[in-house]
Structures are given as structure tokens and as C-alpha cells.
Amino acid sequence: MLEGPAVVLADMLHIPTGIAVDSINVYWAARYATAVTMVPKAGGLPASLDNLDEPGSIRVAVHSSTAYYTTPFRVGSILIGGIPSDMNVIYSGFDIYGMAVDSTFVYWTIRRDTDPGTGMVMRSFKDGSALFPLAVGQNYPINVTVDSASVYWANSGERGTSLGSVMKVPITGGTPTALATNQAEPHDIAVDSSDVYWTNSGDGTVMKVPVDGGTPTAIARGQSGPRGIAVDSTSVYWTNYSGGTVMKIRK
């Protein structure tokens, strides 16, 4: 059971999208920004990491002292507090969207808006080697997350015309299974030891379901275009795309 109300950590943002969290800060990307931005978890003044060399950051993930990000044409990384020469290109291509990272691999989605049923969930080492498709034939896969056993992602469905799903597959590959269906344009996804969390941009809800399956439940309603989502041991964080806010609610 989560404790309300949700708290605003940052506002007056221009189309915030992906969000991530570590032990100190909350990080987010914005659709037309040229930087990944962070704010202390307890609140305070936002600060930018060094500028990216192209606009359009969509997703951000943090592991150790490195921030990983996607643009529509790139999966890359940069040292937190680093300089532009610290940037590393992991993968270049088209229709890149969601991204996640663990101690060994980077995971991302390829979302082909003009060609439904051909989306993919990909994996590689952090230097871009050993490229491997974890799932193919997906219907607009948008964002992805990972734990020690499985990879999870949201299939948003054809925008404005159909409902989407929340999926999982073993981290080594295999047959994908659905954890939730008939969701209103699921967008971003996060996981902790017990539950999978996601945002439904179509109906303004923030949802969760047990990692092994069960009945989805809403933890927040009435949000203004919820998009990015992240979770730690105490709280769930998300961005409101239309409202221009970064939100937090305690578990």
C-alpha cells in the first residue's frame, strides 16, 4: 500500500519523459532537451549533466557512476559529472526508444511506429558487443526494465487505437509472457523485488502487478500524461509529460 499524497520534486519542465533514481538523486530526460537533469531525492535545485551532442533524449538509466541514455538514433553513456569526451556510443540505429541497464548488459527497445508487430527488445554488453534480440514481433515496445531474473517491457499498442500490455521474458531469452493486458497505452516500466510498476499515458494512471503475475492495481490516478517511472526501496517516482512535473509517492 502506497502512502499519499504525491510530492512534486521539479516543475515547469518541458515535456519530461524518462526517469531514473540512485541512492542520492533522481534523474530525468526531456523530449527536446540536450542534457540529462538531476535533483536530490529530498528536493532541491535541479542540475544538468554535461550536454549531449544531439537533442531528443528520451530515456535515462543510472548504474554506478555512469548515466545511460537513448535518443531516437542512439544508445549512449556518459560519466556522471564527466565531460563530453566521456560520452560513449553503445548502439546506433533507427527507432530506438526504451533502455535499461544492469551490471553487465544494456537493454533497449526498437519501436517501429509505421510497422506494427515488428518491434524488438535488444541486449548487448556495455561496449556494444554481443548484440542479441531477447524478443521480436512485438507491438510497439516502448520502455524496458530488468531484474536479476527477467526483462520486462511495455507494449504500448498502436497509439490512440488499441490497448497495450506489460510483458516479461527470462533474462537469458525465451518465450515472452504477458503480466497485464488491456492497458491504456502503457508507457514506462520499473521493477523492485516484488512488483512491476508502469505508467498508463492513456488514462492517467500509475499501476503495479506482482512480478510473477496477478491482478494489476492503480497506485495513482488523475495524472497529467504520466510517462517515465522509477522505484527505490521507499518510493515510486514518475514524470507527468503534460503537467511538466516530477512526482513521488511513498510505498
List the helices and strands and how they pair.
Blueprint: E1 3-10, E2 16-21, E3 25-30, E4 37-40, E5 47-48, E6 59-63, E7 66-71, E8 74-79, E9 88-92, E10 96-101, E11 105-110, E12 119-125, E13 132-138, E14 141-146, E15 150-155, E16 164-170, E17 177-183, E18 186-191, E19 195-200, E20 205-210, E21 217-220, E22 226-231, E23 235-240, E24 245-250
Antiparallel strand pairs: 1-24, 2-3, 3-4, 4-5, 6-7, 7-8, 8-9, 10-11, 11-12, 12-13, 14-15, 15-16, 16-17, 18-19, 19-20, 20-21, 22-23, 23-24
- Mean pLDDT, rounded to whole units? 87
Briefly note the structural class of the backbone: mainly beta
How many distinct beta strands? 24
Strand order of the largest sheet: 1-24-23-22
State the helical fraction. Answer: under 10%
Q: Could you give the order of the helices and strands? A: EEEEEEEEEEEEEEEEEEEEEEEE
Largest sheet: 4 strands, antiparallel
- N- and C-termini, Cα separation: 6 Å
Beta-strand portion reads over 45%
